[in-house]
Amino acid sequence: xxxxxxxxxxxxxxxxxxxxxxxxxxxxxxxxxxxxxxxxxxxxxxxxxxxxxxxxxxxxxxxxxxxxxxxxxxxxxxxxxxxxxxxxxxxxxxxxxxxxxxxxxxxxxxxxxxxxxxxxxxxxxxxxxxxxxxxxxxxxxxxxxxxxxxxxxxxxxxxxxxxxxxxxxxxxxxxxxxxxxxxxxxxxxxxxxxxxxxxxxxxxxxxxxxxxxxxxxxxxxxxxxxxxxxxxxxxxxxxxxxxxxxxxxxxxxxxxxxxxxxxxxxxxxxxxxxxxxxxxxxxxxxxxxxxxxxxxxxxxxxxxxxx
Length: 307
What we know:
This protein is an alpha/beta fold. The protein has helices at about 25-40, 65-75, 90-95, 100-105, 120-130, 140-145, 150-160, 190-195, 220-230, 250-260, and strands spanning about 15-20, 45, 80-85, 110-115, 135, 165-170, 170-175, 180-185, 205-215, 240-245, 270, 285, 290-295, 300. The strands form two sheets. It has an eight-stranded mixed β-sheet with strand order 6-14-13-8-9-10-11-7. The chain has a six-stranded mixed β-sheet with strand order 2-1-3-4-5-12, sandwiched between helices.
C-alpha cells in the first residue's frame, strides 16, 4: 500500500470551507463550531447549501446535487485551504459520484477533515486523488465544540503536525506486538458498504487499519467484519487500531466479537485507541506510513501528517 500525497498544514488566517455532505446541521452547533475555528485565527466560510434540508428525506442536508456542488466548489476554490465537514449521518454515498473528480484533481491538493459517514469520502479521496486526509472531529459536532481534548489534538495536527507525530491513545493491546504500514480505515459499516463500488479500495493489504462505529448492535458489527473477511479485504493487513463503539452494546460484548473476528489475523490489534465517535476523539491521518505499538498504545508517523 503506497503512501499518499500530504497536503500543506494550515497557517493563521487560512480560509477553510465548511460543507455538509451528509446529514442536516443544527444551526446552533454550526455557529458554535465556527466560533471555535475563528478562535484559531481561521477564516471559515459556509457552503451555501449547508442550512438546507431535503424535502422528502429528513436525514439528508439538502439535495444530493447541492451537497456535491458545495463540496466541489469549495475544493476547486483556490482561496480555500481546507474543507471541513460539518457533521456525519448519512448521505455521502448518494452524492460522491456527482462530483467532477477531474476538476477536483486539477485544483491541486488541499485538506479534508471529517469522520463517520465521511469515511466514504476518505476512501474516494485516497483512490481518486491520492491524498492524505484527516479522520477527525467535525465543525458542528457536539463532541468537538464541547471538548477541549478533541479541539487541541485537531488544532495541533492542522497547525503543527510535527508535535503530534506520535499519537498516544491510552489504549491496550488486544493482540500484542508492533507493526508497520500505511494508515487507512474509518467507520466499519461504511467500509463494508464500499465493497463492490467502482473505485473501492481492493483491500487493506499493507495497511494499519483503523476501525470504529456507532449505534450498531453486535450482530451487525459481526456482519460487517465477516463481510470484509469473506471478501478477502483484510488479507495482508499489518495491524488494527480499534476506536470507539459509542452507543453500541456493552463493550464487553463488542470486545468479545472483535477478538473472535480479528484475533485470528495474526497481527497486532490495539483497542480503545480514542478516535471516532465519543468525547475527546483524536485526529488520525489516513494515507501515511506509521508504526503501531499495540503494547504501548501508540501510533508513530514516519513524517508529520501535513507538509
